[in-house]
Amino acid sequence: MTNSFPPALVFIIGALLLPVFRGKLKSIYLLALPFIGFANLLNTPEGIHWTVSFLDYNLILGKVDKLSIFFGYIYHLITFIALLFSLHVKEDSQHIAALFYGGSALGIVFAGDLMTLFIFWETMAFSATYLVWARRTKESSAAGLRYLLVHIFGGLCLLAGIIIHVYQTGSLEFGYIGLEGLASWLILIGFGLNCAFPGLHAWLPDAYPQTTATGGVFMWTFTTKTAVYVLARAFPGAEILIWVGATMTVFPIFFAVVENDLRKVLSYSLINQLGYMVVGIGIGTQLSLNGTVSHVFAHILYKALLVMSMGAVIYRTGKSKCTELGGLYKSMPLTSIFCIVGAVSISAFPLFSGFVTKSMVVESAAMGGMTVIWFMLLFASVGVLEHAGIKVPFHAFFSHDSGIRTKEAPVHMLIAMGITAFLCIFIGVFPRLLYGLLPFPVDFEPYTASHVVTTTQLLLFGALAYVFLLRSGIFPAEMRAKNLDADWFYRKGAKAFMWVVNNPMTKFGSWVSRTVFDVIPSSLGWASRNPLAVLKIASDTVLLQFAVPEKREAIQARIKKEKEIYPGDIIKHWPIGTIVLMVILFLLVYLIIVMQ
Amino acid sequence: MEKKYFFDNPRNVKGFIWLFYIVTGLFTVAELFIHKHTFFTWEKYPFFYASFGFVAFVFMILAAKHILRPIIKRKEDYYD
C-alpha cells in the first residue's frame, strides 16, 4: 500500500478547492498544485494501487509502471507551464475545466481497468469542450458542440468495444488488447478518433483554433497524447498503425500549406506529429516505442511553445490569420524568439528537441526495411519544416508588415514560454536525461556526424526551395478562405439531414395526420348518416364501371341524384315479416356462437 | 517618422539571406568529409538528402497550390 494519492484526484479535487482562494493566493495555489501533484507522483512506487470494488469488478485507479509514470511527469510539467501561461485569466471556471481536463488525462494514464479509463475518457471530452466554449464567440460555441458530438460518438464506439471485450474475456483489466475481433476494432476506433486518425481527424482543425488563447495549450496536449498512450498500451505492433501513422504524417502538410489561420496550421501540424508517434506504436520494437514515447515528451513542449506564442499574439491582437498578421517581431521580439525556438525544435534541427526523438522512429522504420514508410516520413519531415518551421513564425512575426503595433506579451506568459524554450534546447543538447526516463533501455546515438549533416541538409535545402519559390512568386499567396476537410461530411450532412426532415418527411407526416385524423373520421361520419344510401351509391359506382355505354348515362344520373338527396330518408320501411326473419337469423347466429 | 527595425533595412535582409546561403553551402560540402551510416543504397548517393529536401519541398508546394487548393477552397462564410 502506498501513502500517496491518485494523481487524477489531486488535480480534480484541487480544482474544486480553487474558488476558496482569492487574489494573489489564488495564483500561488494554482502554480503550487502541479508541484503538489508531482511530489505525490514521485512518492508513488511502481505497482498496482488504489483498487476500488464496484459491483463485481475491481476498479484500479493506479497502474503505475515506467510508461504511465513517464506520461505522468510530462503532464504535470505541461500543466504547470500552461497554468503559468494562463495566470491572468480571472474566470475560475476556465482553470477548473483545465484542471479537470489534465486530471482526467492523468486518470486515463494511470487507469488499470477499462471502466476507470472510460469514465475519465468522457470527463476529458466534456472539460475540453468547455475550453472551446469559454471563448464565447458564435464560431466557438458551434465548434464546441461539434467537438462534443464527435467525441461522444467516439466514446460510444469505445464503450461498445469495452462491453463486448469484457463480455468475451470476462476481465475488465486494461492492458495489451491486440487487433482481433469486433471488440478490439471498436476500441481502436474510439482511441483512434481521439488520436485524429485520417478521416476521424476533422474535429481537431475544426475546434482547436476556436479555443481561448490560453486553453489551447491544454487542448494541444492532453486529448491526443492520451490517445497515443492508450494505443501504445493496447495495440503495440499492430501493423495497420504503421500505415495509418504514415498517412497522418503526410496528408496534413498539404492542408497546412494552403491554410490561412495559423492556429489551424498548428492543428494540422499536430496531426502530422501524431503520425510519427502512431508509426512508432505500429512498428512496435523497443526502439520505435522509445521513439514514440520520447517524441510525446518533446512534442508536448515544442508544440506548447508554438501554441503559446500564437496565444500571446491572439491575446495582444485578437488575430491569428496570415492575412491579418505580419511584422510583429517589432512589438513582440521575445515572443518571436520563443516561437522560432519552437519552430526549429519541431523541424528537428540538431541541438533542438525534435532531432533527438523523431529520428528514433524514422530509424526504426529504416531498420525494419520499410522503404515506402521511410520515404513518407522523410517527406513529412520536409513538410513540418514548411508549415511549422517557416510558415508560423514567418507569417506572424515577419513577412509583410501588417502595421499592427502592440505590447510584448505579459510577464507570466514570457516566463512560461521561456521555460518551455529552455527545455526544448536542453533536451536537444542533453538527450540522455530524457532517454533515461524511457520505458526501454536506449541504445541510440542521435549525434553522429552522418545524422547531423544529412538531417541539416534535408532541412536547409527545403528552406532553400522556400526562398526560391517565394522570390519567384510561385509560392501560393495567402488567401482569406475556408478550406474544406472531412468535417464537410457531417456539417453539410447535418444540413442535408435537416432538409430531409423538414421537407419530404414533414410532408409525409402531415399527410398521415390529415388522413388519420381528418379525412378518414369525417368520411366515416358522413357514411354513418345513412349507410344504406352509401352502399347504394357504392354499388352504382361499381356498376358504372361495367355498364354498357348505352346505360351509362342513366346510371350516372342516378348516382348524381342519390348524392344530391343524401342522406335522404334515413328510415327505411321494412315489412314486418322481413324484420322477424332477420331477428330469427340473428338469434340463430348468436346461439351458434354461444353454444360453441 | 516611425522607428526603423532590423528587417526594415534591405541590407540586413540581404545579409541574412547570404548567411543562410553560406550555412547551406557549408553543410553541403561537409558531406564529402564524413562517413555516412546508411540503411538503404540510395542514401549513399552524394547529396541525396539535399536534393530530396529541395524536390520534396517544391513538389509539396506545387501539389498544394495547384491540386488541393482548387478542390477545397471556399468562401470564408461557406458554412454560415
Brief synopsis:
The complex is a heterodimer of chains A (596) and B (80). By secondary structure, chain A is mainly alpha-helical.
In terms of topology, how is this protein built?
The complex is a heterodimer of chains A (596) and B (80).
Chain A: H1 7-17, H2 23-42, E1 47-54, E2 57-64, H3 66-85, H4 92-109, H5 114-133, H6 138-169, H7 181-194, H8 203-207, H9 215-234, H10 240-258, H11 262-283, H12 286-317, H13 333-346, H14 353-367, H15 371-397, H16 411-429, H17 431-435, H18 449-472, E3 482-483, H19 487-528, H20 531-546, H21 549-565, H22 576-595
Antiparallel strand pairs in A: 1-2
Helix pairs in contact in A: 1-2, 1-4, 2-3, 3-4, 3-9, 3-12, 3-16, 4-5, 4-9, 5-6, 5-9, 6-7, 7-9, 9-11, 9-12, 10-11, 10-15, 11-12, 11-14, 11-15, 12-13, 12-14, 12-16, 13-15, 13-16, 14-15, 14-16, 15-18, 20-21
Chain B: H1 10-30, H2 48-72, E1 73-74
Written description of the protein model:
The complex is a heterodimer of chains A (596) and B (80). By secondary structure, chain A is mainly alpha-helical. Chain A is 72% helix and 3% strand. Chain A has 22 helices and 3 strands. Chain A has helices spanning 7-17, 23-42, 66-85, 92-109, 114-133, 138-169, 181-194, 203-207, 215-234, 240-258, 262-283, 286-317, 333-346, 353-367, 371-397, 411-429, 431-435, 449-472, 487-528, 531-546, 549-565, 576-595; strands at residues 47-54, 57-64, 482-483. A two-stranded antiparallel ribbon of chain A has the order 1-2. In chain A, strand 1 (47-54) and strand 2 form a beta hairpin. The longest helix of chain A has 42 residues, at 487-528. The termini of chain A are far apart. The model of chain A has no long low-confidence stretch (mean pLDDT 93). By secondary structure, chain B is an all-alpha fold. Chain B is flat, with a radius of gyration of 21 Å. The mean pLDDT of chain B is 90. Chains A and B meet through helix 10, helix 14, helix 15, helix 18 and strand 3 of A and helix 1, helix 2 and strand 1 of B. Strand 3 of chain A pairs antiparallel with strand 1 (73-74) of chain B.
